[in-house]
């Protein structure tokens, strides 16, 4: 609950100690990233918002700030509403010292259930978290040299060598796909794939640390009902150079590309259809497929963050979805953003339409696969499937709604550039 304006007029605020502020560029406009070093949370502010925050020196009252920003008497009420709403929001985020305690609305039992359902998104569910810093620090001596121009040259040579080996015996390569029909070493293959997933996430973490960031969490995740791993590289939001952020996003597939070249080498130099030959081929094919999927920008995987940095639009996906909704007659009126450039509107529209179509297709394929598995293994599989579906759709829809509401406008206020999590 936002306090009435008259109760905030003589309040004095000050930006809390322990905040890191980094200025960046987003589509030609200044953008400011603020990190609370105590919690590791990162917030984004536009130029107008950061101007308000920097004016909070512990001496200037809110009424003085409003008067300074108003310019004309007609603008006082509008500025008062914007400033008081903004300050209440920032105070609840814990970024301010001074003033009365942040007010909050009483939570009814029904709202508690709604909040719990919103928090539980079965299509993006974290299964565990572990602080990897103690393990990663000694590993940095091994991984840091890989993230260098010599390391990139080595990978380029290895990849070129792999392509040469495949083309040198192309017929054998195509015949090797027959292995999928009689392969029996799935335990070993899955063990290697799990190991490569851990190395993939380690690559993200090492790249983040290489450029001065910290890695606060690493764990397992269910994404679109598929198991995987994730690494919290939120600190990469603080990198002034978007090139460094792109390197962090590419680091996972970069490491897996080394593994792919090694697998092709084992496949080529081992006897045809021997156990090592079969395992290496299956591992290489699944690995390159996973690399390509990770680079698809329409899922919340590595390719999404790469595209977001390339087009210089933060929170690209939720903002694009919100923008597409805003174009729907009547329904989208309250979703319309007022501060978007023509360039941003074009990017959000194109990305939003393609991403929605892609996710619908991907989710339909995943749901169909789950239905087939359940009906195959149980006579009551159809009933179980629909029970699970009903139980998952509601919390997932509420979670998506909450995400979209966060980014439905570009007015004054803080934006939380949601934790930048690399998923594989």
TL;DR?
The chain is α+β, with helices and mostly antiparallel strands and about 425 residues long. Helix content is about 55%, strand content about 10%. It folds into three domains: about 5-95; about 120-125 and about 310-424, no CATH class; about 125-305, no CATH class.
Write the layout of secondary structure elements.
Blueprint: E1 12-15, E2 19-26, E3 29-36, E4 42-46, H1 47-54, E5 57-61, H2 62-70, H3 76-92, E6 96-97, H4 109-119, E7 124-126, H5 133-143, H6 149-168, H7 170-175, H8 179-182, H9 186-210, E8 217-223, E9 226-232, H10 242-269, H11 275-294, H12 302-311, H13 316-326, H14 342-377, H15 381-406, E10 421-423
Antiparallel strand pairs: 1-5, 1-6, 2-3, 3-4, 7-8, 8-9, 9-10
Helix pairs in contact: 2-3, 4-15, 5-9, 6-10, 9-10, 9-11, 10-11, 10-12, 13-14, 13-15, 14-15
Key features of this structure:
single chain, 424 residues, alpha+beta, 3 domains, four-stranded antiparallel beta sheet, 15 helices, 57% helix, globular, disordered N terminus
Provide structural commentary.
- The protein folds into 3 domains: 5-97; 118-123 and 310-423, no CATH class; 126-305, no CATH class.
- Helices cover 57% and strands 12% of the residues.
- It has helices at residues 47-54, 62-70, 76-92, 109-119, 133-143, 149-168, 170-175, 179-182, 186-210, 242-269, 275-294, 302-311, 316-326, 342-377, 381-406; strands spanning 12-15, 19-26, 29-36, 42-46, 57-61, 96-97, 124-126, 217-223, 226-232, 421-423.
- It is an alpha+beta fold and 424 residues long.
| Net shape | globular
What does the main sheet amount to? 4 strands, antiparallel
Q: Give me the Rg, rounded.
A: 25 Å
Strand line-up across the major sheet: 7-8-9-10
Q: What quaternary form is this?
A: single chain
Averaged pLDDT: 80
């Amino acid at each position: 609950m936002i306090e009435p304006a008259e109760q905030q007029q003589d309040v004095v605020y000050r930006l809390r100690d322990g905040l890191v502020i980094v200025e960046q560029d987003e589509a030609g406009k200044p953008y400011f990233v603020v990190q609370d070093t105590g919690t590791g949370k990162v917030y984004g502010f536009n130029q107008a918002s950061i101007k308000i925050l920097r004016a909070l020196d512990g001496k200037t009252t809110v009424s003085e700030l409003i008067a300074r920003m108003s310019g004309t008497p007609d603008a006082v009420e509008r500025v008062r509403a914007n400033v008081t709403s903004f300050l209440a929001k920032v105070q609840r985020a814990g970024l301010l010292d001074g003033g009365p305690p942040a007010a909050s609305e009483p939570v009814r039992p029904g709202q508690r259930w709604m909040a719990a359902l919103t928090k539980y998104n079965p299509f993006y569910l974290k299964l565990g978290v572990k602080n990897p810093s103690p393990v990663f620090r000694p590993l940095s001596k091994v991984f840091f040299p890989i993230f260098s121009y010599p390391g990139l040259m080595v990978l380029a040579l290895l990849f070129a060598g792999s392509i040469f080996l495949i083309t040198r015996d192309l017929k054998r390569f195509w015949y090797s796909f027959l292995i999928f029909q009689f392969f029996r070493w799935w335990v070993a293959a899955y063990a290697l794939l799990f190991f490569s997933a851990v190395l993939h996430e380690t690559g993200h973490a090492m790249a983040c640390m290489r450029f001065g960031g910290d890695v606060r969490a690493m764990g397992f995740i269910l994404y679109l009902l598929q198991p995987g791993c994730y690494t919290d590289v939120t600190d990469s939001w603080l990198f002034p150079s978007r090139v460094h952020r792109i390197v962090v996003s590419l680091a996972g597939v970069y490491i897996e590309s080394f593994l792919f070249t090694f697998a092709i080498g084992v496949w080529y130099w081992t006897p045809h259809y021997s156990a090592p030959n079969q395992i290496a081929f299956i591992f290489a094919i699944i690995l390159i497929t996973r690399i390509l999927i990770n680079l698809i920008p329409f899922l919340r995987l590595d390719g999404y963050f790469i595209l977001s940095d390339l087009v210089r639009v933060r929170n690209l996906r939720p903002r694009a979805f919100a923008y597409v909704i805003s174009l729907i007659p009547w329904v989208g009126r309250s979703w319309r953003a007022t501060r978007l450039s023509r360039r941003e509107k074009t990017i959000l529209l194109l990305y939003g339409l393609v991403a929605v179509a892609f996710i619908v297709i991907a989710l339909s394929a995943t749901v169909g696969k789950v239905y087939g598995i359940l009906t195959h293994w149980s006579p009551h599989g159809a009933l179980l499937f629909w029970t699970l579906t009903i139980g998952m759709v509601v919390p997932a829809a509420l979670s998506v709604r909450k995400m979209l509401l966060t980014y439905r406008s570009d007015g004054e206020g803080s934006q939380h550039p949601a934790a930048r999590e690399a998923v594989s």
